């Protein structure tokens, strides 16, 4: 089994701020971010912050209804064609075992896929390779593959902030996961990681975001 570590990706109605997360066996540097990207017209897409969608215990019933998790989507055919295309490219790159195949998908400058919550890495591929438990990047590719083959959600649909996010656990309160869903979760993370998530109070492993226009917005972990 792959070594794993705990991270956090937790969106909201307008995708607010990301909280911290604990780490486990995986040797992640604790400085990951989320990105800015461009849409099909070339306009900048706003930076997308993140926080837990789990309803707050003190919130009103109306607030809890508004904060209800989005539907879990399992069929890639439900994705817009540009999103399907980017997902396919990411899966093909991950399966190839050649981490350099991600480079043209990452973009550059302000439109680059952001990978850390700290400074922008000087070289994104070197950065991803540094997160892997091996020096070739096979582990991080395997994690990306597992994430992209998982079920997903659409956040803020029909708005300028709409985005598709893998895996769906990022938008689900941990306490609401069924036994079947917990098995799915543990295909991505270990039981130890899940224990850390329980302590943190939310899913905290890798997540990917892609806009409806097919832009790979983020691949992030940690705080």
Structure characterization notes:
A hairpin with a 7-residue loop joins β3 and β4. The chain has seven helices and six strands. The strands form two sheets. The protein has a four-stranded antiparallel beta sheet. It is globular and about 40 Å long. The protein is an alpha+beta fold and 223 residues long.
Report a brief summary of the structure:
By secondary structure, the chain is of the alpha+beta class. The protein has seven helices and six strands. It has one domain (37-220).
How many individual β-strands?
A: 6
Our estimate of the beta-strand percent is: 5-15%
* Oligomeric description of these chains: single chain
Task: Give the N-terminus to C-terminus distance in angstroms.
Answer: 24 Å
Low-pLDDT sequence parts: 1-65
Shape: globular
Strand order of the largest sheet: 3-4-5-6
What is Rg? 16 Å
Q: Number of folding domains?
A: 1
Mean pLDDT: 77
The secondary-structure class comes to: alpha+beta
Characterize the main sheet. 4 strands, antiparallel
Q: State the helical fraction.
A: 25-40%
Order of helices and strands: EEHHHHHEEHHEE
- DSSP helix count? 7
